[in-house]
Amino acid sequence: MNPVENQLECGKEQNWVYIDNGTFRLSQQALLKHGPIECAYRSILRENDFSAVEGQRLYPVVDRMPLISDFFHADCRASDGSIYNNIHSGIHFDATLHERHSESSADKTPLNYNVLMFGYDSVSRISFMRLLPKTYMYLIQQLGAVVMKVPVYGSA
Prior knowledge:
Layout: E1 17-20, E2 23-26, H1 28-34, E3 37-46, E4 52-61, E5 65-66, E6 71-78, E7 83-89, H2 95-103, H3 122-131, H4 133-142
Antiparallel strand pairs: 1-2, 2-5, 3-4, 3-6, 6-7
Pfam families: DUF229
InterPro entries: DUF229 (IPR004245)
């Protein structure tokens, strides 16, 4: 199956914000191009499987600040008047998860599997192919991913 011809047009400018090892980072390229940048951060929290809410606005957010949540909305303004708004995802450090992991007896003998499985329904799979064609092709061509092309895995 080939990706749909109508692809999303992404902005040409690189993101001002990126995540590095659980920390909020400002791009050096954006700083050089736009000058000093001030950002605000709103956590995006899932209420349930079908809805999410934005948390309180945290301002100012500084470079190398640890993430507060896995998903967040960043809005930034540069000294040259440029504005940046985007939603980002990363993995924030949660000490309680690490404590629970170290206490777990099941992890004493890991199985060391090297398998990654994406489970999409047919609509999501097609959307993934259409909206992220480079990622899809990388998975297929570079990583040798196998696309099952069936709508349901296992018993329905």
